[in-house]
Amino acid sequence: MEIEVMFAPPKQLFDEITDFLATAPTTEALIAYTPSGTLVERLDSLLALNESGNLTDEERTELEEFLRLNHLLKMVKLKAQLLQSSDT
């Protein structure tokens, strides 16, 4: 009997981001923030599977969540950069 393990990186990414934001980081720390290597590797794997057309439905959903969270993170970083440049 095979046990299927659900990989939940989008939740893990969400938790990483919210844990980081809860520390009230400086603007510089916010701009420099990157997700853990494990999550970056998973995203790279999903992107490669997508490129080759081999994503399962579950992986496609996972990739879409990653991309949404990545977009949110990019927008926060851009706004932080704008705030930083207006302060100087």
Explain briefly what this protein structure is:
With 88 residues, the chain is mostly helical. It is built from four helices and no strands. It is elongated and about 45 Å long.
Strand content: under 5%
Shape descriptor: elongated
Which class do the helix and strand fractions yield? mainly alpha
Mean pLDDT: 87
Cα gyration radius (Å): 16 Å
Largest sheet: none
Q: State the end-to-end CA separation.
A: 62 Å
Q: What fraction, in percent, of the residue positions are helical? A: over 70%
CATH C-level of the domain at 39-88: Mainly Alpha
Uncertain segments are 1-6
CATH topology of the domain at 39-88, by name, is Helix Hairpins
Q: Tell how many strands the DSSP assignment holds.
A: 0
| N to C succession of SSEs | HHHH
CATH architecture field of the domain at 39-88: Orthogonal Bundle
Task: Give a verbal description of the structure.
With 88 residues, the protein is mainly alpha-helical. The chain has a domain at 39-88: Helix Hairpins. It is built from 4 helices and no strands. It has helices at 9-21, 27-32, 37-52, 57-87. The longest helix is centred in the last third of the chain and has 31 residues, at 57-87. The protein is elongated, with a radius of gyration of 16 Å. It starts with 8 loop residues before the first helix and ends with a helix. Residues 1-6 have low confidence and may be disordered.
